[in-house]
Amino acid sequence: MLNVKLHHLSFRTENQKSMVNFYQDMMGMNKISHPNDGVILQAKNRIIHFVEGTKNTLNYAGYIAPDIESLEKLRTKHQKSGLDLLKSPSPIFGDTAYAIKDPDGNRLVFGLSVAKTKEEASMAGRMQHVVVASTNVQPLINFYSDQVGFIISDIVKKEDGQITSCFMRSDNEHHSFAVFLGDSNKLDHNCYETDSWNDIRDWADHFAEAEIPIFWGPGRHGPGNNLFIMVKDPDGNPVELSAEIEEVEKDRQTGFWVHNERTLNSWGKGLLRVD
Fold it and tell me: With contact defined as beta carbons under 8 Å apart, do 215 and 204 qualify?
């Protein structure tokens, strides 16, 4: 197992001001830095780095190792698996960090936080997973499971065998990364894990006060078994608030699910990215 957790995300956007305002006002994040190529926002257990570029694009996802020994073991593992290790684009991780790039051009960065910054009190919601969409999911699944070292928790398939979703874990939580079949290669959504169902209620009231509609949920996913609601940021990226995500036993076998609405939401309507 990789033994890393999602620590921060970087999105490309053509409307940095609106995105920064949304994540400040609605996600309770504060500016902590202004790198040459963007803005970094932080709240307790969640950090986002915005840079200029094509919207709905993952610039990179930063996964944190527990210590330098674990990071160096991971680096050696990735070198042996034939990955090209690239310079880290993250100003949040230190000089020991490195990056990899998948077949669609998405980058993951593995590293250690360079320094602690003051975390203001905020609503519960630690950065938990990120999902990318792809028109050709199998090469990405092979890349992340065979070379990077993510473990596949669950796969969703159509009746003809076409994989529509693959959920992968890097620690004991059901997934910290996933690949969905889509009509283009892009960022699908980012998710924040709360402490309880009551927290999701509080987030829903918070969005309602700002007249931001919940476009999906409340519901419960099949894979992951987590409760959820989703809203959209100004670029149209879905933002998920989750609770009770499944904790996976080390020897758990990969699960297989049928591609239908009930798999995606056992409580009601499912959001099918593809038919």
Answer: no
Question: Token pair 């894979």 is at which residue?
Answer: 223
pLDDT digits (tens, 9 = 90+) for 85-121: 999 999 999 999 999 999 999 999 999 988 665 666 7
CA-to-CA dists, residue 54 to 90, 187, 191, 266, angstroms: 18, 11, 21, 34
Q: pLDDT band for position 250 (50/70/90)?
A: confident
Q: Which domains does the chain have, with CATH numbers?
A: 5-111 (3.10.180.10), 126-264 (3.10.180.10)
